[in-house]
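Issue 218. Parser rejects a valid record. Input:
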Amino acid sequence: MASRSNTKDRILEASTLLFRRQGYEGTGLKEIVAKGRAPWGSLYHFFPQGKEQLGVEVVMRYGEYYRCLLENNFVESSSVIQAVRDIFTASATELVDSDFANGCPIVGVALDAMNSSSYLRQACAEIINSWVATLASGLVVAGISEFLARDVATSIVSGLEGGTVLSRITRSTRPLMSASDAAVMAIRSALSDEWRRESSTRLESLLFEGDLKTGHDQCS
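Output the parser choked on:
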């Protein structure tokens, strides 16, 4: 049983790497089997619906793995800004270490299959939404309202994915780090908005209490 499980893991790991580097359409099943050192028959044993099912499992598996990384980043970092910077820095480091070969497998699948497979597109959308939700939760804990946090989290994921694509194209981490700076600015702006809103609310409350006291004094 362990051997069968290891075979499936090798197929999934090989698929993830190849999708990151070549995209979904650019990767053939024979290439996956060869990279994963798996018998040809095992592919359809574990994935009877073929490449589409394999693609969905890669998306869900990698997506949850990365969601946990995002979540842990907020727990382990000294601040929300540092947590977000660390996310972008880690992606930039991985790009450099892979000679700009390793992109995001979710994007590798989504861009190739969004118009041809609703099954794959929905899986990619579910994962992206889970990343946004995880980031938004961390931003809320830092003091940003739920409404603003969702928008800022969406912009962070957009910058992370778009920055990774541009960095691979230009073979430079500058686009990714520029996206990191933009994400930090968005967080600071959101935190500032919350501070101004809270200050305004406190001021209105004090003025209201002052009006009540004045009215009370006049009636005494």
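Fixed in the parser; the record now loads. Residues 199-204 have pLDDT under 50 and may be disordered.
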